[in-house]
């Protein structure tokens, strides 16, 4: 693990195989951390890629910025990290909130993107009801902590049948959620409630784009992934069977195959 200071915070990150030909940045969702991407890191490094996995501010081993953290702050943090590492451009991918960070990164730093990977995410702006929900949840996490929330949502983060079928995966996902600092989670929830609609900017994407979704994702269903695929010119869309909101963890071999085939086909 390495650390990097930016904008009043210290980000933790892993930079694996820095001699790899093409850098790939993978952005975790809420309320997880960089270890979510361990199966992809191993597969990508074995295929000759450099893999950079940060903990977003407020998550994992990164420091907390209390109050509110906008997606634009996360995106600018990543741009600063790439500059710090001397990386001009990279494949940028994310799951769930991480996918929204990737879309915001494209909106603000598109010259740094070689390809986009958007997994189980939504391009829609938050609704008024969604804003109330996220702000109320932020208040609840600050009062109660993460345990109750983690137990409530585990069968939505994973397909419900995978909670029992994949106990080690379920325990890892629960562990990440429980270990997240409530102040970091709350700040991200409040910032995410203010996200814009990414439809207009997705229509201008000029790099190869892969959209991935678990077949049984209840948070961002297949229809939302296909809607993103319709917005992005020449996007590839892949549905991962027997997976919910985190197909990279639930079906890592299938996810890795889809990702590597896309990278080989589109980037050479």
TrEMBL record:
InterPro entries: AB_hydrolase_1, AB_hydrolase_fold, AB_hydrolase_sf, Epox_hydrolase-like. Keywords: Hydrolase. The lineage of its organism: Bacteria, Bacillati, Actinomycetota, Actinomycetes, Pseudonocardiales. It comes from the Bacteria. Pfam families: Abhydrolase_1 (PF00561). This is Alpha/beta fold hydrolase. One of its GO terms (molecular function) is hydrolase activity. One of its GO terms (cellular component) is membrane. The keyword Nucleotide-binding does not apply. Residues 23-250 form the AB hydrolase-1 domain.
């Amino acid at each position: 693990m390495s650390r990097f200071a930016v904008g009043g915070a210290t980000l933790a990150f892993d930079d694996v195989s820095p001699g790899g030909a093409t850098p790939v940045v993978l952005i975790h969702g809420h309320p997880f951390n960089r270890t979510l991407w361990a199966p992809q890191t191993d597969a990508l490094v074995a295929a000759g890629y450099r893999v950079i996995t940060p903990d977003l501010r407020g998550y994992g081993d990164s420091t907390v910025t209390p109050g509110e953290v906008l997606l634009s702050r996360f995106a600018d943090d990543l741009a600063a990290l790439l500059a710090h590492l001397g990386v001009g451009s990279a494949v940028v991918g994310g799951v769930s909130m991480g996918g929204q960070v990737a879309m915001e990164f494209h909106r603000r730093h598109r010259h740094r993107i070689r390809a986009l990977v958007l997994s189980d995410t939504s391009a829609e702006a938050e609704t008024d009801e969604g804003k109330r929900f996220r702000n109320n949840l932020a208040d609840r996490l600050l009062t109660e902590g993460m345990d109750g929330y983690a137990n409530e949502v585990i069968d939505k983060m994973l397909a419900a049948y995978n909670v029992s079928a994949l106990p080690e995966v379920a325990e890892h996902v629960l562990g990440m959620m429980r270990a997240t600092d409530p102040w970091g989670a709350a700040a991200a929830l409040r910032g995410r409630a203010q996200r814009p609609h990414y439809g207009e900017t997705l229509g201008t994407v000029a790099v190869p784009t892969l959209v991935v979704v678990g077949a049984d994702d209840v948070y961002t269903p297949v229809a939302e992934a296909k809607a993103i695929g319709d917005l992005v010119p020449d996007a590839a869309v892949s549905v991962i069977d027997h997976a919910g909101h985190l197909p990279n963890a639930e079906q890592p071999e299938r996810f890795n195959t889809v990702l590597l085939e896309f990278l080989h086909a589109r980037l050479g």
